[in-house]
Each structure stands twice: as C-alpha cells, then as structure tokens.
C-alpha cells in the first residue's frame, strides 16, 4: 500500500522536495512490511530524521521512530537509509543525492514497529564481554595513587571508546545477516577496547569468551562495520587486532 | 529468516554493491571458495574414471576437451589465483598486520583498516586473476 502526501504547501520557502518512503510494519497485526510515501520539502541542512518528524507532525503521527539527541551522540536513530545503515540525525537529505529516500528499520535487529528496533541482543552481547575495567584492586582501595596512563597508552583504546552503541555496525555485518548467534562487531570492538586498556587485567577472560565458533572467528574482515560507523570507531581494526592476540601476532 | 528477526539473510550477505571494494572482495572470496570446492569434487570424480581403464579414461578426456570445459578451466584458474592472493591479504589482516594503528578519529572518519594497502591487495588479486585467466584461455585455445 502506498500513500502519497505532500507538505510542500506548508513549506513555501523550500525549493526542493523528495519522496520519503517509510517502511511500516507492526508485528502484532501485519504479515509483511509495506511502504508509505510522502512528499517532503527540504533544505540543504535538513536531516532524514527531521523529514521523518515532519511526516509525523503533518501526516501520520503513528510512524514509530526512536530518537533523542539529534546530534549523533545517543545512537538511537539508526536505520537503513537508501539501503545502508546510517544515523537519521547525522544524514542530510542533500548528501544522499537522490529524489527518493527510503527508510527502513535496521537490518539484523528485530522490529518493534516501523523504524524502531529491539536492542536487547546488542546490549546482551555488549554486557557479555564485560565492558568495564577488571582488576583485583580499585582506585578507591589503593592508597598509593590513581591508575596513571601515558598519552600513548590512551591512544591504544580511545578510538574504540567512542562507540555509542547505535548498532549500525551489526546491521552492516554480513555475518550478522545469517548468523543469529554471532557476537557481532560492536561487542568484539568493545572487547578490544578493554583488552588494549593498560589499566585492565581481564584480557585472558575476554579472549576466552570470544574464542568460540560464533565468536571472533566468524568475522571475515569484510570491513562493512567500519564503513558505516558514524563515530570513526573502526570495529574491523579492533577485531583484527584482537584476533592478533589469539593468533600470537600480538602479546 | 522471519520478519520478526529482520535478518538480511543470504541475499544481504552476498550483495556486493553497498559497501565498497572490500565487500566485493568478501563476496568474490566466498564465490571462488565455493567454485574451487565444486571443482575439487568434480576433479576427484574425473580422475576416479581412470579405474574404468584406458578406454573409459580416454572417453572422459574427450568429453572434457571441449570449448565449454576449457572456459570452465579458465574460470577455475582465475578463482584459484584470486582466492590465493586475496587469501594472503585477509590472513595478514586477521593477524592485525596492515590494518593501521588505533588513533583519535577525525571527521569524516575514514576507517584506517580499509587503507590503501588492502585496496591495492584486492585490486592486485582481481588483476592477477584476470591475467591468469587470459593466459589460461590462450594456452587452452591456442594452437
């Protein structure tokens, strides 16, 4: 089913418009997803999220979309935009260079409704790799000094600490597309983030956790995760460096 | 895959168009791997025909000495070369070699792991596979 609507009359200052195709699906009632089409005017700076919110404001408030910060910090508004996983708040319509913008829920994530997806599995795998410093002592207990790090030691992991858990890497991963048990690039990159931290002492337990058939060995270095990451985390690099420990290339 | 899971499935896995040359290499690696496996099985079947004696063996050789099978063999040569060269690139990458060093990312966040060394490796694998295939065609069809 397709519905064509327009807000061009309301936006008299805009000179351009696109057709925004929004995937609609409610698991409780629908057998399959369908697209609804809206004509939306835009400016050079208009983001896809703003276009979706315009549709919600003027035409169909029932479109389900998750968002919060609108500045690529919270990681809530990940979705497939013209077939690629992107943050809707970080993607300008003018950058897409297309008269038709198709938005769908992120691949490889169960759909709650329309564009909103479940993050439980991503958070579960993230939690599984113990995303915290593991030590026998703590800064509070030790009366000697804080855990100092050199700038070089910080450089080893700070890139991977930029992860906002938006899930775009998992949506782009070809292994995630078929393997429901794969840990995923997000969790693996975070495993490296803590393994590479000079303050952390949990390397062996983390490596043991990911050294399994649906763990790090299912990554085939396609690199799609790194290409879609909106924060420059480069999960593919983290995963290969992590695998270097297991293969004995790194110590 | 069910709609509830929303997995891209095999179609999404093998789609080489969205994520650059690295994803094309991923797709070609799988395709050539399956092709070489099929060739390996066919090759075992072919050579096992020697058990039928000289007549049977000669019959099979005549059957495979056709332009169609020559083209198949040339494709096998290409798959073999691509799989080998790209496999070396991927194995080095899997050990963390040539994937760059962690650093503070700057916008527009070009991933260091997708650097020129790996791109050169992929393009080299494709070019070498094409050259090997052309050489194979020249040998098989040449007089």
CATH structural class of chain B: Mainly Alpha
**What share of the residues of chain A lie within helices?**
25-40%
Give the helix tally of chain B: 5
Structural class of chain A: alpha/beta
Beta strand % of chain A: 15-25%
Give the CATH topology of chain B. 3 helical TM bundles of succinate and fumarate reductases
Low-pLDDT runs of chain A: none
| Spatial strand sequence of the major β-sheet of chain A | 1-3-2-6-4-5
- Choose one word for the global shape of chain A: elongated
Give the terminus-to-terminus CA distance of chain B.
52 Å
CATH topology of the largest domain in chain A: Fumarate Reductase Iron-sulfur Protein, Chain B, domain 2
The helix content of chain B, as a percent range, equals over 70%
Number of strands of chain B: 0
Largest sheet of chain B: none
* Order of secondary-structure elements of chain B: HHHHH
Largest sheet of chain A: 6 strands, mixed
CATH superfamily of the largest domain in chain A, by name, is: Alpha-helical ferredoxin
Based on the model shown, name its key terms.
heterodimer, A: 251 residues, alpha/beta, Ubiquitin-like (UB roll), 2 domains, six-stranded mixed beta sheet, 16% strand, B: 143 residues, mainly alpha, 5 helices, elongated
Model description:
The complex is a heterodimer of chains A (251) and B (143). Chain A contains nine helices and eight strands. With 251 residues, chain A is an alpha/beta fold. Chain A folds into two domains: 114 residues, Ubiquitin-like (UB roll); 128 residues, Fumarate Reductase Iron-sulfur Protein, Chain B, domain 2 (Orthogonal Bundle), CATH 1.10.1060.10. A six-stranded mixed sheet of chain A has the order 1-3-2-6-4-5. In chain A, strands 7-8 form a two-stranded antiparallel sheet. The relative contact order of chain A is 0.12. The mean pLDDT of chain A is 91. In chain B, α2 crosses α4. Chain B starts with 8 loop residues before the first helix and ends with a helix. With 143 residues, chain B is mostly helical. Chain B has one domain: Fumarate reductase/succinate dehydrogenase, transmembrane subunit (3 helical TM bundles of succinate and fumarate reductases, Up-down Bundle).
